[in-house]
Amino acid sequence: MKALIYHPGLTLASVPDPVPGPGQALIKVAATALNFGEIAYRSPRPRPGHIPGWDAAGIVVQPAADGSGPAAGTRVVTFGWAELRAVDTGELAIVPDHVDLGLTSALPVAAGTALQAVRRLGSIAGRRILITGASGGVGRYAVQLAARAGAHVIASVGSPDRAAGLPALGAAEIVIGPAGLRERVYGVLDNVGGQQLADAFLRLEDDGVVQAVGKASREPTMIDFEEARVRSQRGRIENFNISTPLGDDLAHLVGLLATGELDAQVGWRGPWVKAAEAAAALLDRRVAGKAVLDVP
User: Fold this and answer.
1) pLDDT tens for residues 33-86?
2) Cα distances (angstroms) measured from residue 289 to each of 75, 135, 281, 285
3) Rounded to 5 degrees, what are φ and ψ at 92?
4) What domains are there in the chain, each with its CATH number?
5) Which positions ≥6 away from 263 have C-beta within 8 Å?
6) Which residues form the Enoyl reductase (ER) domain (predicted)?
7) End-to-end C-alpha distance for the chain, whole angstroms
């Protein structure tokens, strides 16, 4: 079969077919999606034969031998950059017939991260929530999900043109970086790191919380805690890591997508032979949201 691997750049190559374990279904992949993090922070020395990739959607061609999970022919959202993937059934969710598998492939890690990070902020109805890197894959989902939870969403972007479409997704305010905030916020979903994470922390309400999700800036974070004490800050920063299995969260997200309550925010789509082009566009900030690759 064919798969996307790093050799040394992102390219298609022939690799052995996967062999499913007892609790795994074999999926014929119809579309995959790229995330900034898996490209920007990939290992400089990938393991021989390793198939990277977090997001995909396709059709079950062989159900799990232990009887768990969906039957053959079921459309599902899952993981991996290859024509065939063996996936634990706890990491699958069924996709209705009327929902585009390409759009669904944009959900797993980005929307799953946004969903879990919003939950970890606790009750946010009526509260001011800042989302940095709001124009990216996780950010655009986080804006939608925080707004659905009743928050006053402040979307932080790198430039005015990156704010396109965010008010329609639920952003009540747009700022060019957290340093421009005049009022404090209860919670922050930070996808950028570096100086923006430091600036966001200093703008927390007392007992506010930052979920440190990503590091799109590729910069270390330096926080002046003396300044924080002067400002009477008692806020905290939590290092976010996504929890698995994701099956139940994926089912919830697919349900929102199917009813039009969640927009997949696909900013680039093309055949997977153009994977390197899509990856470069993501790294250069020329994609708002997700990049989707259709698998023939």
Assistant:
1) 998 888 887 766 666 667 888 899 999 999 999 999 999 999 999 988 899 999
2) 23, 6, 11, 10
3) -115, 155
4) 2-106+264-294 (3.90.180.10), 110-239 (3.40.50.720)
5) 140, 144, 169, 257
6) 9-293
7) 12
